[in-house]
Amino acid sequence: MSGVAGRAARVSFGGAMLAVMRKDLALEWRTREIFSATVVFAALVLLTINFSFDPGQRAVEQMASGILWVAFVFAGMLGLGRSFVAERENACLDALALSPADPGAIFLGKAAANLIFLAVTEAIVLPLFAVLFNFPMGRAVPGLVLPLALGSVGFVGAGTLFAAISTQTRMREVMLPLLLLPVSVPVLIASVRLTGTALAGRALAESLPWIGLLVLCDALFLVAGTLLFGHLLED
Amino acid sequence: MTETGSRVQDRMDAILRKVRNVTTPLAGFGLIAAAYFIVGYAPEEAQQGIVQKIFYGHVASAWASYLCFFITFVSSGLYLWKRDRAWDLLALSAAEVGVVFCTAVLLSGPFWGKPIWGTWWTWDARLTTTLILWLIYVGYLLLRPFAGEGERGARFAAVVGIIGFLDIPLIHLSVRWWRTLHPQPIVMNARGPQLPPEMLTTLLVTLVAFTLLAVSFIAIRAEIERLRDLAAVLRRRALREG
Q: What pTM value is reported for the model?
């Protein structure tokens, strides 16, 4: 008995985090449920925006970063909402809570998996947007990496925490956007600004304050999530 | 911890009762004084006229809501740390009162904005920040019934109360860089207060009155919630003993 406990207690923070991430990725890889739903939904968002605004070429250039982030956020929220549903249905959340892994590591593992899901969605939405809106993306792509990465980390950090909360409430689909959207306003504003700068082909150095703000947001949500996640797992 | 509450809860009950007894009458006097100062003492602003008088209640409500959200933040942290329902009661009550004052800010602003700016609403930095704050704490209040009765809702809400408050400076910064139209701060200004002394006095009186009002509201609200807890205990006991 003590041997098992002793071995279990040696689960390192990073090891637990990777294990949780790998579990979520494997689960998704076998079903591809969230992924397909998210990508189709993102395409539908692009379609809806196109029909609602019917933007001309000039308007598309002005709105590009906003359109992209609307698609990322709504599709991302769909994925985040599912992130804890499987855990809840089979009482896996209790098992995770009972495991010797640090709750912070579980949070970061889930967030890392969610980040990968969102990144894949973004990688598909970008060319889709370029084609559907006839937007010349080509040369701007390398500059997009930093804004999308920083923005996605903040959004997923807050999103993973609030998804853990909303999944455990009645009305879970309603609760996630109500909690997540207002809190992620700074992430969204900064991401849209930075993405716009990158899409216009300008150097990101001129928006250094926005980068700083995004880094602060990312740090806040990741640190707060890591420290507070344990409080969401009991019951 | 007994069925009806902990030692912390007992002490909190006593403190809240004392706070309520002191602040409620003082808030009453304060409001009367503030009304007198606003109507009879503060001069009418030369360009804006009588509408400018909204400013006193508007700024004082904004201050009161920030104070409430700060109390929610601290109590939420203490709740997660100590797990004593007393802190949760305080966090919940302060959040509710904060939303009331935040609503007052959002409603009083347009009555000044329409004649002065020519528009009810504008996506200016401070208006936008206030609206986002309001949405965060309305989410906090909505979360509680959806999370189910009792301890779990308190834990979830505490996490939101902490993140929401820490997010405020980031929201403020991001929205300010995004755009701003709102009058620049005239009291907490680098060059010292820019208000005429009579207006400053009036504002300070209103601030004190609204602070007392907010504290009195929180104490009363927490007591109501506490009584609700006790009623539930009594109901359970009655059911048990048939």
A: 0.88
